[in-house]
Write a structure and sequence with these properties.
Chain lengths: 174, 174
C-alpha cells in the first residue's frame, strides 16, 4: 500500500516550536492550553506578519522535535509499505531547505524520492494520507486518517489517530 | 481535467543553460549537436561531481530561458483545466528556492498551490502528465505525453509532443 504522511504536527512538532519561538520573541509565556484549538497567531493576530516571516526561515524547522513514536512507526511502515512524506511547503516556500534537512536528520532511512513538497494534496496519489488538516483530507482521493493535534481536537472525523501507536495498530504492525 | 506539467526541458530550457554553464566553466564550445541524445556530463563524466554541485545551486535556475510557447499554452490550459507544475527537485534539493522563484517570475498566473516538488512521480494523481522523461511517464498512473527534448528524440513513445503548439492542439485550445 502507498501511505502518504504529512510533516507538521504529524511527525514534526510544529506547535511546540511555534509557541517557544513566539514566547522568546515577544516575551510571553503562552502555553498550548491557553491557545486551545488555535495557534499563537490565532490569539495574537497582530504578530501574524512577523510569525509568517519567521516560519518561512529555513532555520525555523531545523531544531523541531520529532512527534513521539513517529520515527519507530514510520520506519516499520517503510519496511512493509510504500511511504511518502507529503508536506505543504508552499505557505512558507523558503522553508523547504530546512524541512529537507530535518527529514534527512530524523528520518535517515527514507530516500529523497520519498519526499513531496506541495501546496494542494488533491495531487497526491496514494491509498492513505495521515494528516492533521481536515482540509487536506477533504481533497485527498484515498482514505484519510486524521492525526490528532491541538487545533483539530474538536473536529469530527471518522478515522482519527491519537498517536503513532494507534497508527501502528491500524496498519497491524508488529 | 487535471494536467501535471514537468519543469526542466518542458517549460524551462535546462539543456541550453547546462551547456552554456559547462562551456563557460570548462572553456569548451560544446553544442547540443555534439552532445546528441545526452547531456554535457554524458560526454564528460569527469565533470559529473562539479556539474551536480552547480545544478544544485539555487541560482542555476534563476536565468533559465522559457521553452518556446510554454507561457501562452500553460496560461490557456490553466483557464480550462486544473494545472500543476510537478518537478523533480530531489536530484538537487537546494534548487527548490531557485525553481520556485523562476516559476513566480515566468508563470505569475499560477499560484503556489499549483507547484509540486517531488522525487518520484508515482505519487502524482492527475489525468495527464507532460514530461520529457520516459521514466517519469512509466510510473505515472494517468496518460503520459512525452515532451520532445534532445535526450529523448530516439525514444519510442505512443504520445509525443514536439512543441507547445502540439500540446495546444492535443487539448483543442483556441
Amino acid at each position: 500500500m502507498r501511505i502518504a504522511i504529512d510533516m507538521d504536527e504529524v511527525i514534526a512538532d510544529f506547535c511546540q516550536k511555534d509557541i517557544a519561538t513566539f514566547n522568546r520573541l515577544f516575551k510571553m509565556q503562552l502555553t498550548q492550553d491557553m491557545i486551545g484549538h488555535g495557534y499563537t497567531t490565532t490569539l495574537y493576530p497582530q504578530y501574524n506578519e512577523a510569525m509568517k516571516a519567521i516560519r518561512n526561515d529555513p532555520d525555523f524547522f531545523r531544531d523541531m522535535q520529532v512527534i513521539e513514536g513517529a520515527q519507530e512507526v514510520v520506519a516499520k511502515l517503510n519496511q512493509e509499505h510504500e511511504v511518502f512524506i507529503v508536506t505543504n511547503a508552499m505557505h512558507f516556500p523558503r522553508s523547504v531547505a530546512g524541512k529537507y534537512d530535518w527529514l534527512k536528520t530524523h528520518f535517515p532511512f527514507l530516500t529523497d524520492n520519498q519526499f513531496v513538497f506541495c501546496g494542494n494534496k488533491v495531487i497526491i496519489h496514494a491509498d492513505y494520507l495521515i494528516d492533521d488538516s481536515t482540509g487536506n483530507l477533504a481533497v485527498f482521493s484515498g482514505t484519510g486518517l486524521l492525526f490528532s493535534s491541538p487545533h483539530n481536537l474538536a473536529v469530527d472525523h471518522p478515522l482519527r489517530m491519537n498517536s503513532w501507536q494507534e497508527v501502528a495498530d491500524y496498519f497491524s504492525l508488529n
